[in-house]
Amino acid sequence: MPHAPEDNRNVMENSIRKLYIEATSRCNLACKMCFRHSWIGESFGDLDPAVFARVMDDPAVSATETVFFGGMGEPLVHPALVEMADLAAGRGKSVELITNGTLLSRGRIKELLDAGISRIWVSIDEIYENYGKIQVGSDFELVRDNLRAFNELRKGSNTRLGMTAVVMRDNVASLRRIRDFAEEYEADDLNLSHMIPNREEDVPQALWHMCDVAAIKAVTDKIGYTWRFEGFDLGTEIPMFKFSDRYRRELFPDEESLHEAELFSWKGKPAVRRTNYCRFIEEGNCFIRWDGDVSPCMGLLHTAETYLNDHRRLVRHHAFGNVCRQSLGEIWNSEEYCSFRERVHSYSFAPCLFCGGCELLEENSTDCIGAPGPTCGGCLWGQGFIVCP
Question: Which residues contact 263 (CB under 8 A, 6 or more apart)?
Answer without folding.
Answer: 175, 176, 179, 241
